[in-house]
Amino acid sequence: MKDQFTIGQMSKLYDIPVKTLRYYDEIGLFTPYHTDGETGYRYYRAEQFQQLDMISFLKSLGVPLKEIKQKMEHSTLDQFLHTLEKYEENTRRKMDELKTTHRHLSQKIQQLQLAKTTERGPLLSSLPKRSIWKEERSFSSLDDMEVLLREIKKTVNHMTPIMVGSVGLFVSPEHIKSDEEFVYDGLYILLEEESGYDILPEGTYATVYSLEDRRRDSYYYNMLVDFVSGLGMETEGPLYTRQIVDSFISHMKDERLTEYQIKVRG
Predict the structure, then answer these.
(1) 206 φ/ψ angles, rounded to the nearest 5 degrees
(2) Using CA atoms, how far apart are residues 240 and 262, in angstroms rounded to an integer?
(3) CATH 1.10.1660.10 spans which residues of the chain?
(4) CATH architecture of the domain with range 5-75
(5) Residue 242 CB: number of other CB atoms within 10 A?
(6) Is 201 helix (H, G, I), strand (E, B) or coil?
(7) What mean pLDDT, rounded, does the chain reach?
(8) Distance between CA atoms of 96 and 92, rounded to whole angstroms?
């Protein structure tokens, strides 16, 4: 069996770039047992493998090289145990974050798949209560909405990502005049689970989906009111609208999708 290994051989054994091994040597983290004075070649022994294993393991946990060096030079059992426990907690937190990200992705995929087959309506549907973050603040343009979203992003982002499909607007009937003269009463953000914030109450809702590239809130509000009235029923509360597919998701205008929804009086 070989009793020494060149830096190139160590690089292949550990899948670590030669440049990285040289850097480890420069900072005194992992030095070769011998460096040829004439050629500068670095040589390592098999007995050093365990040390490099530990360095690679700690680095994979996210431990900074400076901290690893300190542990390699002088560390007690309790100190090393404390380090592992600290990074175990970091790893658990990252796993939770990845699970949340995976859930967000799955929900977005499901939402967009449904968007491809959704009946355009108008139609009635029975919906469960939905948790939302609600911000009541009047504005008249989508630019104003974007500014408002930036203001509340830090508060809401830990609950759900702010993206197309999760953000909606609401407007009371008395503020619906025409598509040219329009004042929204605020915005809402759909949350994934019950969280003690506001809710969209369960019940029957009238819904219509628009494939138009521009917003026509007044037009679709009147369509829903006429549809519900034709069934001998009445609407109540504000009009809720949210864009599910926008120009960022699809450049095809006939694939844009906006939802308009209003509660039917029970």
Answers:
(1) -95, 130
(2) 6
(3) 5-75
(4) Orthogonal Bundle (1.10)
(5) 20
(6) coil
(7) 84
(8) 6
Rounded Cα distance, 50 and 87, in Å: 20
- CATH class of the domain comprising 120-264: alpha beta
DSSP code of residue 197: S
Q: How far is CA 148 from CA 139, 145, 204, in A?
A: 9, 5, 30
The number of CA neighbours under 13 Å toward the Cβ of 247 is: 4
Q: Is the pLDDT of residue 42 over 60?
A: yes
Distance of alpha carbon 201 from alpha carbon 191, whole angstroms:
14
Question: Bridge partners of 43?
Answer: 6, 34
CA distance 184 to 98: 35
Indicate the SS3 state at residue 171.
strand
Q: Is 233 helix (H, G, I), strand (E, B) or coil?
A: coil
Strand ranges of the sheet holding 235-245, from the earlier edge strand across to the other edge = 123-127, 203-210, 257-264, 235-245, 167-171, 184-190, 130-139, 198-200
3-state helix, strand, coil in the chain (%, to 5): 45, 25, 30
Shortest CA distance to 187 belongs to which of 142, 219, 230, 224? 142
Task: Specify the domain boundaries for CATH 3.20.80.10 within the chain.
Answer: 120-264
Determine the Cα–Cα distance for residues 196 and 226; give it in Å rounded to an integer: 35
| CA 167 – CA 152 distance, rounded (Å) | 12
CB-CB neighbours of 168 under 10 Å: 22
Tell me if the pTM is above 0.90: no
pLDDT in tens, 151-185: 777 676 655 655 656 788 899 988 886 665 668 89
The CA-based angle 149-150-155, given to 5 degrees, is: 80
Which residue did the predictor score with more confidence, 179 or 50? 50
